[in-house]
Amino acid sequence: MQQKRICAVILARNEEKTIGEIIRNTKPLVDEVVVVDGHSTDNTRLIAEREGARVLLDHGKGKGDGIRTAIQQVDSDILVFLDADGSHDPNDIPRLVQPILDDEADLVVGSRGRGGSDELHGDIQKLLRMVGADLILIAINYRWNVRLTDSQNGFRAIRTEVARALNLKENITTIEQEMTMKCLKKGYRVGEVPTHEYARRYGKSVIVLRKVWYRYIWSLIKNIF
Ligand SMILES: Nc1nc2c(ncn2[C@@H]2O[C@H](COP(=O)(O)OP(=O)(O)OP(=O)(O)O)[C@@H](O)[C@H]2O)c(=O)[nH]1
Ligand SMILES: [Mg+2]
User: Fold this and answer.
1) Residue of the CA atom closest to atom 22 of ligand 1
2) Which residue from 2, 30, 57, 220 could staple onto 8, CB 3.0 to 4.6 Å apart?
3) In DSSP terms, which residues pair with 111 in a beta bridge?
4) Ligand 1: which of 9, 10, 13 to mutate, judged by most atoms within 8 Å of the beta carbon?
5) 178 Cβ contact partners less than 8 Å away, ≥ 6 residues apart
6) pLDDT tens string 43-93
7) Domain parsing of the chain, residue ranges
8) Element housing 56 (H / E)
9) Which CATH architecture group holds 6-224?
């Protein structure tokens, strides 16, 4: 059987402090490293190019737009998505990809339910985020009679062919739950491996819960029926 080519897709918007190290740690584990730049105004793009990554530019609509840009433009057989803020450990990439290589899954999500998270515990904002994510997860589990422990983690691997077949629409971080739901709906195999989510190393979250919560609910409603 022919060797499958693996591409790490790093989503980055103003992550100059961490992007270089993430690329260096990712490179030895994959065949290709692509950085999707969300119109950074700092040196993210420059550093990514210097580290030898292929840099794509999204359309400035959000992380979902960035993910779609990669799905359209990258031709490797398997895509592994990870954040550029230090939340995801590149050393987990081989474990994420393995179920696809073994032909046991089409999408493999890094589960914070099983691997733990520094971003979902400790203050009210994080509590609300966690409860919201869990309610959505429960809805998904009942709808498709599965027992997933994370539907939203951005750290995930997917067969490129499958990603293209999903016709993803979401422009922001709602794209991850959309991807999970559309895979289940179309009968693709969704797997999980435990991965730990670390606190973003620098800077503040761009996600302001009170501004986006309804978009998560709306995307759930659109995709679950
Ligand atoms: N290409 C692209 N990447 C983005 C965009 N917005 C955010 N990102 C990146 O996507 C990743 C996830 O975004 P975060 O802001 O960390 O979102 P989060 O992990 O849910 O929230 P915090 O870690 O708490 O800030 C990070 O690496 C961001 O730099 C965008 O519009 N385009
Ligand atoms: Mg983050």
Assistant:
1) 205
2) 30
3) 194
4) 13
5) 64, 166, 168, 169, 170, 219, 223
6) 999 999 999 999 999 999 999 999 999 999 999 999 999 999 999 999 999
7) 6-224
8) strand 54-57
9) Alpha-Beta Complex (3.90)
